[in-house]
Amino acid sequence: NALFCLETAANEKENHVYTKALMAYAFALAGKEEKRKTLLTSLEKEAVKKDGSVHWQRPGKEPEVHLPYYRYRAPSAEVEMTAYVLLAHLTTQPAPSQEELSSASLIAKWISGQQNPNGGFSSTQVSCFLPSCGLT
User: Fold this and answer.
1) What is the C-alpha to C-alpha distance for residues 133 and 119, in angstroms, rounded to an integer?
2) What is the pLDDT along the chain (136 residues), one digit of tens a residue?
3) Backbone dihedral region for residue 52 (phi beyond 0: left; psi -120 to 50: alpha; all else: beta)
4) Are the C-beta atoms of residues 114 and 73 closer than 8 Å to each other?
5) How far is C-alpha 21 from the geometric centre of its chain's CA atoms?
6) What residues have CB less than 8 Å from 26, skipping those under 6 apart?
7) Are 64 and 48 in contact (CB under 8 A)?
8) Is the pTM of this model over 0.85?
9) Are 95 and 102 in contact (CB under 8 A)?
10) Rounded distance, CA 83 to CA 1, Å?
11) Residues near 64 by Cβ (< 8 Å), separated by ≥ 6?
12) Which among 46, 73, 108, 123 has the fewest CB atoms less than 10 Å away?
């Protein structure tokens, strides 16, 4: 039933980027290769490509603050959704293609740049944007 709910939600025209990232990973885990690829193609169109790395951000996000002696780190939701896209690229059978590994390396570069001085990340949050499933 959960997979049916996700397939129904994936067919909606307007899905939040976080929802697409999470669904792409869920479909990868479920072995639904076509759905995974469709969502990754859609996500690619919304990717932020900057400084040789790739990530995803929420629509309408405030621009980054560039101050001397200050290293901007993305909000936890953006690190989280970008990590889901990375997992979706790497979770495929039999193994990720060379193209997917290349994409994954650009995503991993951005994620590693978000680490704090202790090697961790900002706190994570739990959120779901699947109103069709009754989850909010």
Assistant:
1) 36
2) 888 888 888 888 788 999 999 999 999 999 999 999 999 999 999 999 999 999 999 887 665 655 565 556 677 889 999 999 999 999 988 899 999 999 999 999 999 988 887 777 765 543 444 444 444 4
3) left
4) yes
5) 4
6) 6
7) no
8) no
9) no
10) 26
11) 72
12) 123
| CA distance between the termini of the chain | 18
Residues in the chain: 136
CATH topology of domain 2-129: Glycosyltransferase (1.50.10)
CA 92 to centroid of chain Cα atoms: 16
The four Cα atoms 48, 53, 55, 61 give a dihedral, to 10 degrees, of: -50
* Strand, helix or coil for residue 69: coil
**Distance between CA atoms of residues 86 and 107, nearest Å:** 6
Residue ranges per structural domain of the chain: 2-129
Residue (of 50, 88, 105, 87) closest to 72 by Cα position: 50
Q: How far is it, in rounded angstroms, from Cα 17 to Cα 121?
A: 21
